[in-house]
Amino acid sequence: MRIDSSLGLCFIGFGNVGQGLARILVRKERELAERWGFAFRTVAVVTRTRGAALSSDGLSLADLLARVERGEPVGNERISPVEAALLPETDIVLDVTPTNLINGEPGLSLTRAALGSGRSVVSSNKGPVSLALAELKELARARGAHYRFEGAVMSGTPSLNLALESLAGCDVREVQGIVNGTTNYILTRMEEGFEYADALREAQEKGYAEADPAGDVDGWDAAVKAQILAAAVLGFPLPLDAVERTGIGAISRADVEAAAKRGKRIKLLAKAARTTGGVAASVAPAEIPLSHPLASVGGATNALTFTTDTLRDVTIIGPGAGREETGQALLSDMLAIAAAERHGARFSVKAG
Ligand code: HSE
User: Rounded to two decimals, what is the model's pTM?
Assistant: First the structure.
């Protein structure tokens, strides 16, 4: 990877998260260079429905955002995600394609291709992490590349990197909390008197929900995050279907209001914990008292408690979804890669 000049960024996807990241990069370009030593050129933006744009000298993200705002394509180039990832000018591939939990595509193929060629990948896409974390980590290690995916859990609020880097040396035994912004937003709005369908529509408008919101409501998104925490933090890979899963589909506004009358609040809780034989992970709604620390975590805010040996419980609370909120995760991962390359050290996310 070149570190003497600007890093070549290749966006695969330019939806909520890609645009959120682009806005941050436009706003902070100078600060990133001056304060963080991070200079970049956007060499490709490839989308599924809005065309593609390429430039080895660097595209203007402000122009691309304006085009999308006007409903125009980002460009008229024809190039596949894998071809764009492998452009000679690409240093870091940003996989901001939607999560596909069935086969991981298109993210999995482009991630394999990029890492296999020694290019680093920064991702908010949960599919490839869920399906192939061990393989992708090994590919990155073998090719001297970085694979980072902080945005897969709790958007830009540090969770994976907190556990793997800031809590380095701690034995994390259990992780528990609220990890889906959409369902927490819906439950909060229903307690405020909104109908389920209206609350879901708001969550979609705010860019919290998955492309198919059933992934949120049925608990799949929280389940895959529990699976990722089990693999990446507890060091114990599980298949997704080993995560016990109940969503919020059966919870009505009446249930939420009845719980409130009893001094309780319904939250969708995710958990991954060591057991004698390995790790157990689950997602289920739970009625918790208002005095419980998680009861006050409302809207799209998320919270995770890491139970450790040396520090006991460490809890982080912060945004769990959103365009710029997830863009921030990608930015912090890019800065970590740039810093690691500058210092000649390599620290890709690792399990266990
Ligand atoms: N749909 C997800 C959520 C996005 O609502 O939490 C962030 O992973």
Answer: 0.95
Q: Which of 126, 137, 225, 271 is catalytic?
A: 225
User: b/e per residue, 148-159, with b = 16+ CB within 10 A?
Assistant: bbbbbbbbbbbb
Task: For ligand 1, say whether the CB of 181 is within 6 Å of any of its atoms.
Answer: yes
3-class DSSP string for 291-337: CCHHHHCCCCEEEEEEEECCCCEEEEEEECCCHHHHHHHHHHHHHHH
The DSSP code for 164 is: I
45-72: per-residue pLDDT in tens? 999 999 999 999 999 999 999 999 999 9
Q: Say yes or no: 210 and 300 in one domain.
A: yes
Domain shared by 239 and 145, yes or no: no
Please indicate whether residue 126 is annotated as part of the active site: no
Tell how far the Cα of 72 is from the centroid of ligand 1, in angstroms. Answer: 27
| Bridge partners, 76 (sequence order) | 52
CA of 250 to the centre of ligand 1 (A): 20
